[in-house]
């Protein structure tokens, strides 16, 4: 697939309109100590398949359908430097055919753009690389609203961060005063990034524990439930039942592993039940659902019904969407804040 030509001024009006819609949000982010946000959410801002994120001075352009058109990358870079950061460095990753078509097939950025940069969110410093072993950014900006809640709840509390990826929610909790944090993920490479985040924020030794294991056996053991699946026959991290004050449950939409499947659309209770059983009385479960087909109302009903059935009824339940840099009438990402009785 070749790049297509573009009229010289086609992208600028979209970027100008997007920044105009973010004036209030950017002011809030500045007061919170945040220098990263989504500049253009193309799905709802005029260019489906295109996103532009600013992480400190790194501008990450991603295309998910068609590649950028001829001359467009240069115009995006000029706009970012003129309106956001004069010292910005830019990388473009075309993800439609990754990994069959490597990113370099479309764009070889300046070497400086490929270094590990630092972005700050809610006063917490995260390392960011435009390109690494995977395709997803190390910090998902749409989950900022959830990490904001984590930061508010964290002081003095224990936090269990499930499907931690690079540990952003757990590191946020530790940086904001959590006494104990577990980051649980099956990928050692992701936990290594989380460890560097902890070092970058001078988190005291012993506060953050990396649990390199599939989430399902960890969560079921903590809840006092039997471990199921083919993986139960192999060695896995052994844990005693216990409860945490705050649990972050951020599963992928769907995955299958040796301990069973994760199916957010059709079987959220299989994750939410053990999370509830692992949560202390009066604690919070911060759960996410990324499936656009699942409405907030239907998901809320599922969470409430699951809590009642397992004997841990909720005393409060709020469902949030992302911040205003991810505009949508019905956002795909839904963040539930559940208080457990």
Give the SSE map.
Elements: H1 12-21, H2 23-32, E1 36-41, E2 50-55, E3 58-63, H3 72-83, E4 89-94, E5 117-121, E6 124-128, H4 144-153, E7 158-162, H5 168-175, E8 180-185, H6 188-200, E9 208-212, H7 215-222, E10 244-249, E11 254-257, E12 260-263, H8 269-277, E13 279-289, H9 296-309, E14 314-320, E15 334-340
Parallel strand pairs: 3-4, 7-8, 7-10, 8-9, 10-13
Antiparallel strand pairs: 1-2, 2-3, 5-6, 11-12, 13-15, 14-15
CATH superfamily of the largest domain: Vaccinia Virus protein VP39
Which architecture of the largest domain would the CATH scheme give at its second level?
3-Layer(aba) Sandwich
**Rough outline:** globular
Count of DSSP strands: 15
Task: Please state the CA-atom Rg, rounded to the nearest Å.
Answer: 20 Å
Largest sheet: 7 strands, mixed
CATH fold naming of the largest domain: Rossmann fold
Calculate the terminal CA-CA distance, rounded to whole Å: 55 Å
What proportion of the residues form beta strands (DSSP E)? 25-35%
H and E order? HHEEEHEEEHEHEHEHEEEHEHEE
Unreliable spans are none
Helix/strand-derived class?
Answer: alpha/beta
Count of the domains: 2
Q: How helical, in percent, are the residues? A: 25-40%
Quickly count the helices.
9
Assign the CATH class of the largest domain: Alpha Beta
- Please tell me the overall pLDDT: 96
Q: Major sheet: order of its strands?
A: 9-8-7-10-13-15-14
């Amino acid at each position: 697939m070749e790049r297509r030509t573009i009229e010289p001024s086609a992208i600028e009006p979209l970027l100008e309109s997007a920044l105009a819609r973010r004036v209030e949000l950017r002011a809030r982010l500045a007061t919170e100590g945040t220098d990263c946000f989504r500049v253009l959410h193309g799905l709802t801002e005029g260019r489906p398949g295109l996103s532009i994120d600013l992480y400190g001075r790194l501008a990450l352009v991603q295309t998910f359908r068609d590649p950028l058109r001829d001359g467009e990358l240069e115009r995006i870079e000029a706009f970012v430097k003129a309106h956001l950061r004069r010292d910005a460095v830019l990388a473009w990753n075309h993800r439609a055919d990754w990994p069959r078509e490597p990113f370099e097939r479309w764009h070889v950025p300046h070497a400086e753009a490929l270094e590990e940069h630092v972005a700050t969110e809610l006063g917490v410093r995260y390392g960011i690389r435009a390109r690494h072993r995977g395709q997803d950014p190390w910090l998902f900006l749409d989950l900022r609203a959830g990490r904001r809640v984590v930061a508010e709840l964290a002081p003095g509390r224990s936090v269990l961060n499930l499907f931690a990826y690079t540990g952003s929610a757990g590191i946020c909790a530790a940086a904001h005063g959590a006494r104990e944090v577990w980051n649980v993920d099956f990928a050692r490479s992701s936990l290594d990034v989380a460890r560097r985040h902890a070092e970058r924020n001078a988190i005291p030794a012993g506060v953050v524990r990396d649990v390199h294991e599939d989430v399902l056996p960890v969560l079921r053991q903590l809840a006092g439930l039997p471990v199921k699946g083919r993986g139960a026959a192999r060695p896995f991290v052994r844990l005693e039942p216990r409860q945490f004050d705050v649990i972050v449950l951020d599963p992928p939409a769907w995955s299958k592993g040796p301990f069973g499947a994760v199916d957010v659309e059709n079987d959220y209770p299989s994750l939410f039940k053990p999370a509830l059983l692992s949560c202390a009385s009066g604690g919070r479960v911060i759960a996410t659902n990324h499936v656009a087909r699942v409405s907030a109302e239907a998901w809320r009903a599922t969470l409430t019904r699951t809590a009642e059935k397992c004997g841990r009824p909720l005393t409060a339940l709020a469902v949030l969407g992302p911040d205003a840099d991810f505009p949508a009438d019905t956002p795909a990402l839904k963040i539930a804040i559940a208080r457990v009785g």
